[in-house]
Fold Fibrinogen C-terminal domain-containing protein.
Amino acid sequence: MNNVTGVNVPNNLVADYGSVYFDGHGGTPEVSVAAYSDCQSLLKAGYSVSGIYTIFPAGFADGLRVYCDMETDGGGWLVIQRRQDGSVDFYRGWADYRVGFGDLAGEFWLGNDNLRTLSNSTGSWDLRIDLEDWDGNTAWAEYGDFRILGDDYSLSFDSYNADSTAGDSLTFHNHWPFSTRDNDNDLVSIINCAEDVHGAWWYVACSQSNLNGLYFNSSWEQNGDRRGITWVLWRGELYSLNKCDMKTRLAI
């Protein structure tokens, strides 16, 4: 970790896929900045390069390592999930999703404990979801007043941005607890949705989105399998996406 307040970093560390920015893995900068509590504050202070930073939001006395997206839609986004190449197994249990897993410079889940503490700190947080299909087409969806609540990590938000291009495949899951293969909190009594669609999510009966689903190496490889990375109102229930990420920032 580079515990300094500023570093010289390359301008090309982030690969641009349309309107969606995914980490290019090479030379990802890492910065520790005790004076700032979120990615948006860092951006306003002049840290304009996407990369790994240590921030100090309320509830994180020792700091929190995060990936800041300083490019998408004005920047200042704190990335909480990324899928881009299938290098990390997302079919995991409750304990892993609680603490988080993966590589901030690649695929990862930030951790439900971290999301709950962060989203209930000072201010209102927006949630943005960026998607990319196998033809390079991109779409996004955005939600207001995003929070993770309680011991069951329930999803909560109060609005959907009607300008979103991906359609709304998350409101179906609003106010529902998180489920994993070993902690079934969905509405269906005869199956465990997390097992059925091979993921972990705020399943109801079962899902209109499944961004922690099984990673397929192409759209044709999925071949009708429901277990993929899906956003139903954009590419349908049986189309597994190439890339996606979830990110949050304080409402502007």
User: Anything to note?
Assistant: The first helix runs from residue 39 to 44. The radius of gyration is 17 Å.
